[in-house]
Amino acid sequence: MTNEHGDGGPHTLALDIGGTGLKATILDGTGRMVVKRARVATPYPCQPDIMLEALGKLTVPLPSFDRVSMGFPGVIRNGRVITAPHFGTAIWRDYPLEEAVAHQFGKPTRLLNDAEVQGLGIVSGEGFEVVLTLGTGLGSALFNDGQLAPHLELAHHPIRGSKTYNTYIGEAARKEISARKWNRRVRRMIDIVYDLLHYDVLHIGGGNSSNIKGELPVNVHLASNDAGLTGGIRLWDDKVWRTVPEQGQQP
What we know:
This protein is an alpha/beta fold.
């Protein structure tokens, strides 16, 4: 059965919320982008009503859709925001973002941490895979044989002295130090994460993954930043959704 787009659908509005940019596209039933992604700078201050307004404007030019997938940079639990470090956790704490987005667009919505959404678009489903996203800060997600593990928020954990992962290799640090020194930090981080987790494969995505230069260990792979959008299709795979910690009981 085809729809107005000429394919089998259903069509998914994929939203990727970042500390520097808000991105959106429409995915067909296979997870392929049917339009070029739209992007605007993340507004600041960015309390919930301002973000919802920005997302509404961002999506106006896009084709129609049947449902919404969204990745958000913070801890998400049962569709509600637990932390929002880039936007102000106090303002966002316990905010029912999944419900609010569903109400705004009038479509069923599913919400996860942004690194977890990206991971769903990257992982092979074999062995213990770790996904790290490098952008404004650091995002992290863990997968065992394709099953998403409980969220591990590495971003705010100390990695060297008083520096957290965010302050050690985030966007502010990358701009402050030389490219060579930042790349050394990334390689040090890779070694530390391996000592911590002993992953089979580490996938590195996010906008700053393109700034990584030189040879990496054979089990470390760079991933397309578009996975933060295309991974959204898998939020609607019930085999995946039932295994998402604290999400599988939702309708």
